[in-house]
Amino acid sequence: MSSTILAEMPRADAKTAAGLGRRRRNADRLARAFAVLATLVALAFLASILITLLYLGVPGISLHLFTTITKAPGSQGGLANAIVGSIVQAGLGTLIGTPIGLMVGTYLAEYAGRTKLGTAVRFVSDILLSAPSILIGLFIYQMVVAPLGGFSGFAGALALAILVIPIVVRTTEDMLRLIPVSLREAAIALGAPRWKTIVFICYRAALDGLLTGVLLAVARVAGETAPLLFTSLGNSDYSGLGSAMASLPVTIYQYAASAFDDWVQLAWTGALLITIGVLAINIVARFVVRRR
Amino acid sequence: MFSALAHAAGLLVLVLLGTIIVLLFVGGLPAFRAFGAGFLTSSAWNPVTNHFGALVSVYGTVVSSILALIMAVPLAFGVAFFLTELAPGWMRRPVGTAIELLAAVPSIIYGMWGFFVLAPLIGTTIKPWLASTLGHVPVIGDVFRAIPGDSSIFTAALVLAVMITPFIAATMRDVFLTVPVIFKESAFGLGCTPWEVVWSVVLPTTRASVIGGIMLGLGRALGETMAVTFVIGNTNRINPSIFAPGNTIASLVALEFPEAESGSLQLSSLLALGFILFVISFIVLAISRMLLPQRGRV
């Protein structure tokens, strides 16, 4: 059939038509090949990072790592104080940031609507979400560290809390917006005041989503280094919140660039621990959402 | 009561951003006073003679981020094209998740990986190749001239590209999926190939959001600290070659702030740099937000 059509066409036109079709097909093939290649390259990066971490990090894993504090090079130190410091600071940061973020998200979803103040708060929260984290460290240095005259684990936790807030704001607002209006109307029709509707109906219905937001926030701040450099600084021993405090990312940063083999080994093992932790929390967060 | 609490929390966020800007500016004020507008145009950074300028680190920040975008945008577009049009259904979720996990890897891990794996690889592959081809072209040859050492602006840009690709790809995928199916089916019905559908229908429909996603990636790249500090070489000198070491605002602050004495002009200059970085990021992120589809309009 097609050959008869081609035969009836003037010769030059048929040639152009066939050429055009070939060109379009080739362009399509080229673009598809590029898309597959791009995806493979991106996946290869992830694979390369994970393989590097496993290859260089696994040899350093031992019980010793979790029970011994950081020590001078050559004297069999572990990462215990850094791990504890990270958990304390990320935990406290999440504890401070989550209620604030939750309230801001509630304000945006339930009260603000399209008011000017609501638009401004949403805009600022989005800016904070992507603002360079090192600037949050500078801010807390100016606000807390310099006036109080010293680095502290508390200052580190505050810096992390500021990073937690916009993440929780966004998931809270998004999740509350998914709750059908009819659910709210039913509660209000039964005579429930607005705050009861929000806390006992909306929060409960959106619980999985809210939890995801908190988990993603924990995963984000657990690996943050820059905001801790000028706030909690680091410590070679266990310490309270009032004094400089060690953290896993900052310890890794200090050890990775050092000239001592055992410190570099600790850095890689610490990097492996952080990455596994962060990726695991991310995957769990995804399952929490999908369960709905 | 609850309503008042929610309103107060909203206001708190506004106050927070305001305080951040004011404190950075006030901290940088002595430097702005001492150097005036010359702070922006001076390439000096000398703690001994107390001469400080922002030119080199601003140059490094902008050049490394733009280079990163040049590499990341095509890659991210390819990934988004694959995930929305080409991948079979069963593949979309796991591959999409893997790309999102790439975005979740902490930046310090990117720094270590970049330093130990990527930087040596560049030194033996991309650098000699670019230097021996484009390096001989008149005028632009200097840009690709090989310079010894694995740490360079190009290395930093490549690490940044790997970091922001998943962000841009995820945004592109999400906005590609908002294109009404009827648009695409109409194009397919006219005999368009998948590539023509994406290039002539999907991309023009989502252009604003795609640029918004790219700006979001740029915002991330500009302020990235740990990954860059590991691989950029930390030299306060402008060299036309992208294979020369340099620094960025964030890397300079991360490196020198812990050593700067409180009350010194150096500390103030670093805070002034922080203020400049905040202004740049703010503008980029504000543009990004204007272009991306907004929440709360439904």
Description:
- Helices cover 78% and strands 0% of the residues of chain A.
- Chain A is mainly α and 292 residues long.
- Chain A has two domains: 2-60; 63-290, MetI-like fold (Orthogonal Bundle).
- In chain A, helix 6 packs across helix 7 (153-178).
- In chain A, 48% of the residues are buried.
- Chain B is mostly helical.
- Chain B has helices at residues 2-35, 38-41, 55-86, 89-104, 107-124, 126-133, 153-176, 181-189, 194-205, 207-223, 226-231, 249-256, 265-291, and strands at 45-46, 51-52.
- A two-stranded antiparallel sheet of chain B has the order 1-2.
- In chain B, helix 8 (181-189) runs antiparallel to helix 9 (194-205) and helix 10 (207-223) runs antiparallel to helix 13 (265-291).
- The longest helix of chain B has 34 residues, at 2-35.
- Chain B is globular.
- The two termini of chain B are 27 Å apart.
- At the A-B interface, helix 2, helix 4, helix 5, helix 6 and helix 7 of A face helix 1, helix 3, helix 4, helix 5 and helix 7 of B.
